[in-house]
Structure to design on (626 residues):
């Protein structure tokens, strides 16, 4: 917020204009001043909250000036309501506060008892009896203060409260009626505690507290201050044990104490350091940083991103069984809105590698995030923000956890593409064995019961390529959405490989592939591999114009790979798919012999031409000199 606009209201004769003049002149102006002062703008100075510019607008309470008053109230960020005697005090509840409500404005009100030099009733009991009933009746009153323009008492403090009511509002944080922090504030502080508890033992130890203190306030706590904080928590939280550090209850209680003592700017400093807005939601620019993936390129996790997710897994695998059970996953995703929507839609963790107990393994965890980053990088960035990823370099953003691959528009160009995550569509007739292939890819046992796939289904796992390099392969069967996806050019552009799969024991299975290729000629632009599934059964003749071997030979493609998910060698198919996806020129259908390579001829002709030109130039020069 760049500017705080203060509208000064109150009955005639309460000293509104004198308060403003005393602030500007720094002394009481004894001469008669005009009834309504012109608008005043004060630039930020040392001590100004959030370094804001302050605009102060004086107003008149006369009925004939009511239209101007309404306009100024509606334009303001905060209202300074001034009273000075019993009559004007009674008018606060009888007229002014109901009037503000009738205008529908939702801004904080600072109540100021001016001319305190004219009364001796400044004891705490009188102040409590006078101001608290009004504050309890009207929750929009942010704070109260007694001031004197004549004595220049609390004048600066009055306008500081106005600034603070806007820059550090108490309303979103604390419910005075209930005497508790509000739920949204509690949720935000719980997430901050989670992020600060680096070892996830449920306590902020001294080192974690110091790191938190330095991050928020740029200075360490002295040992005495740290002991005082623990002592305050021990006194206000019965049964708390601060010997291990500050637990969640103590952390929340500490912030509640700040709110009760009017130090809510301390809470706001903490919240804003962790990218919370005035509405206690995370800043949109923080959870959705700018990150564009060019056409024909893809997004992957960078080494820093992989390291973060690996450390996160190891931190929350409390029982060290190599898998995250439901309780451990719940704890890990505690500072987030829950599992990503796409994970829930795809029945996570069935999309990736699990152990015998059905819990996601580290291999599956990294594979799942690799797939999420490939398909929807903005979801990965959002969860990196929720989970507390901190870039290695302070000048970098969340996007440093991701990287963009080189575009691979020219798939037919020989050579390996620089990608660690590739997507392969498994296409074939119903009952061909595509789902069983995905199960085998995730090391699941074979299930002979046929369940047709309705929605698209994905599986992701790591595959070791020749030479020892690892990549993540995403297999996707399209289900009933197969026609719609194959017509969608954007979806095809994101695909690295097509695997045409058919049931070698079903005579009608291969014809589905032939029909698909005729119906969607754009599939010829994608590298592909043909696979004969269920090779453990008796092979049958396909009801097709050409048998699979003849068909692939007519395209100058490799003959179909015969595999069965019941064979131990099924892993070789996944390696072949990953190799073809990362070296796409080897998996294209060719309708004719490749043109001869005439590069050497062109180079020879070029060299001969250059030599002839040089000889001519030498002859011409010698002729001229002769």
């Amino acid at each position: 917020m760049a500017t705080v606009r203060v509208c000064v209201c109150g009955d005639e004769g309460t000293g509104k204009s004198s308060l403003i003049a005393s602030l500007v002149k720094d002394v009481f102006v004894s001469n008669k001043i005009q009834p309504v002062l012109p608008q005043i703008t004060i630039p930020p100075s040392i001590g100004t909250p959030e370094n804001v510019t302050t605009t102060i607008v004086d107003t008149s309470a006369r009925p004939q000036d009511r239209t101007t008053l309404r306009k100024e109230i509606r334009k303001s960020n905060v209202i300074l309501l001034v009273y000075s005697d019993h009559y004007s005090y009674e008018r606060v509840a009888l007229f002014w506060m109901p009037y503000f409500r009738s205008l529908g404005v939702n801004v904080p009100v600072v109540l100021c008892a001016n001319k305190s030099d004219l009364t001796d009733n400044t004891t705490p009991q009188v102040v409590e009896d006078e101001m608290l009933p009004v504050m309890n009746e009207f929750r929009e009153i942010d704070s109260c203060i007694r001031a004197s323009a004549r004595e220049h008492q609390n004048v600066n403090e009055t306008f500081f409260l106005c600034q603070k009511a806007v820059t550090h509002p108490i309303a979103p944080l604390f419910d005075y009626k209930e005497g508790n922090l509000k739920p949204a504030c509690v949720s935000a502080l719980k997430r901050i505690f989670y992020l600060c508890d680096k070892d996830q033992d449920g306590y902020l130890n001294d080192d974690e507290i110091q790191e938190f203190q330095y991050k928020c306030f740029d200075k360490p706590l002295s040992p005495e201050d740290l002991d005082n904080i623990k002592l305050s928590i021990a006194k206000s939280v019965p049964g708390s044990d601060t010997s291990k550090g500050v637990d969640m209850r103590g952390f929340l209680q500490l912030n509640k104490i700040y709110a009760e003592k009017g130090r809510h700017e301390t809470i706001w400093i903490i919240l804003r350091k962790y990218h919370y807005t005035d509405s206690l939601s995370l800043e949109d620019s923080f959870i959705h940083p700018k990150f564009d993936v060019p056409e024909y390129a893809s997004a992957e996790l960078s080494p820093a991103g992989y390291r973060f997710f690996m450390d996160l897994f190891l931190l929350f695998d409390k029982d060290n069984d190599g898998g995250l059970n439901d309780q451990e996953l719940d704890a890990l995703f505690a500072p987030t809105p829950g599992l990503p929507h796409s994970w829930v839609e795809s029945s996570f963790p069935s999309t990736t590698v699990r152990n015998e107990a059905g819990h996601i393994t580290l291999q599956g965890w990294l594979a799942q995030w690799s797939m999420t980053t490939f398909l929807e990088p903005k979801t990965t960035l959002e969860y990196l923000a929720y989970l507390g990823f901190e870039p290695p370099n302070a000048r970098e953003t969340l996007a440093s956890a991701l990287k963009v691959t080189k575009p691979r528009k020219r798939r037919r160009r020989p050579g390996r593409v620089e990608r660690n995550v590739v997507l392969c569509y498994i296409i074939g007739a119903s009952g061909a064995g595509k789902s069983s292939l995905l199960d085998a890819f995730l090391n699941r046992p074979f299930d002979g019961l046929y369940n047709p796939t309705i929605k698209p289904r994905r599986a992701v796992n790591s595959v070791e390529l020749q030479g020892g390099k690892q990549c993540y392969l995403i297999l996707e069967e399209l289900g009933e959405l197969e026609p719609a996806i194959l017509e969608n050019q954007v979806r095809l552009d994101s695909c690295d490989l097509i695997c045409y799969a058919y049931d070698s024991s079903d005579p009608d299975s291969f014809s589905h592939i032939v029909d698909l290729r005729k119906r969607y000629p754009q599939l010829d632009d994608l590298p592909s591999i043909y696979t004969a599934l269920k090779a453990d059964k008796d092979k049958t003749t396909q009801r097709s114009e050409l048998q699979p071997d003849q068909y692939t030979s007519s395209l100058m493609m490799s003959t179909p790979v015969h595999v069965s998910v019941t064979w131990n060698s099924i892993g070789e198919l996944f390696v072949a798919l990953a190799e073809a996806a990362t070296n796409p020129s080897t998996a294209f259908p060719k309708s004719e012999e490749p043109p001869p390579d005439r590069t050497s001829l062109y180079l020879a002709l070029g060299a001969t031409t250059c030599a002839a030109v040089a000889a001519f130039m030498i002859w011409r020069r010698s002729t001229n000199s002769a």
Summary: The radius of gyration is 36 Å. Residues 592-605 have pLDDT under 50 and may be disordered. DSSP finds 23 helices and 20 strands in the chain. Residues 42 and 447 are 76 Å apart (CA to CA).
